[in-house]
Amino acid sequence: MKLPSLRIYALAYLLFLYAPILLLPIFAFNDGTIIAFPLKGFTLEWFGQMFANDTLRRAVGNSLIIAGSTAVFATVLGIFAARAGSRFRFPGKGPIMGLIMLPLVLPEIMVGGSLLLVLLSVGIELSVFTVILGHVLIATPYTIAILNTAFSSLDVSLEEAAYDLGEGKWSTFRLITLPLVLPGIISSMLIAFTISLDEFIIAFFLAGNEPTLPTYIFSQLRFPKQIPMIMALGTCLVALSIILLTIAEYFRRRGIAKTGGKDTGGFL
Q: Membrane-crossing residues (predicted)?
């Protein structure tokens, strides 16, 4: 009796979770401005409006710059932190790593408000750069979590063998360690890119007059005639997020298999 009930619960949960996402493409191709059934017909008009919108193109450009920069900076910081956390012992290691991972559990509205007060108090104008700072802060813990698995799965004897053959620490990291953890690095960059691209609260606080994709979408929800175009845009974003997460999971599993580690779970 318990097994059928559990299956029903699991199906109901998945339906509740993914039904809104499945409805996005349905209404994105619907020839009607009212988001309701029955559908009126098939159209590509909303996608045409989306590509012809200058403000949207500016918001997309800003979001891509922010997401790309966040992916690079957060991954670089994640490499340093994961390397130190998995290979070295130092005083206060536990509290320091816990402090670095703290943004994972802090409400983003508190982080965004605090960053806004700090940046304004030191005279920094709100711009794309300030959004990058905020996104690096919240994306770095995710990159550390991924890279920590990659570094922990790496066989220490490989590095020791390189040292015995006369290689220095930097050359060993460049020639041995880096190629082995490269799939994890790519995975962490893709995850950081996706997190930054979809993030709204930090961007809402720190973007100033520069629109980002999430803030633009939020501003257009007040206008009913813009809803079908937002549905089309949402369809594109969902497809892009799925592709990026799939690629990230592929490289994560490839990295674990390459280093001979054990897969303890992933994104998909």
A: 12-39, 59-84, 96-120, 126-147, 180-207, 227-248
Residue 158 CA to residue 167 CA, distance in Å, equals 12
DSSP assignment of 182-208 equals HHHHHHHHHHHHHHHHH--HHHHHH-T
For residue 74, name the pLDDT band (cuts at 50, 70, 90): very high
For residue 2, the model assigns a pLDDT of 55
Q: How far apart are CA 245 and CA 234, in angstroms?
A: 16
Task: Specify the fold of 54-259.
Answer: MetI-like fold (1.10.3720)
3 state SS of 30: strand
Alpha carbons within 13 A on the beta-carbon side of 262: 1
Q: Do 229 and 180 form a contact (C-beta atoms < 8 A)?
A: no
Task: Please confirm whether the linkage preceding 228 is cis (ω < 30° from 0).
Answer: no
Please give the residue that has the higher pLDDT: either 82 or 252. Answer: 82
- How many whole angstroms from its chain centre is CA 112? 17
Which of 203, 193, 74 is CA-nearest to residue 141?
A: 74
Residues with Cβ within 8 Å of 80's Cβ and at least 6 positions away in sequence, in order, are none
CA-to-CA dists, residue 194 to 115, 189, 210, 213, 243, angstroms = 21, 9, 20, 12, 10
Q: How far is CA 91 from the centre of its chain?
A: 31
d(CA 1, CA 263): 32
63: pLDDT strictly greater than 80: yes
Dihedrals φ, ψ of 37, to 5°? -90, 150
Domain boundaries, the chain: 54-259
The helix-helix angle for 2-28 and 227-259 (nearest 10°) equals 130
The band of 1, judged by pLDDT with boundaries at 50, 70 and 90, is very low
What is the mean predicted confidence (pLDDT) over 12-33?
A: 78
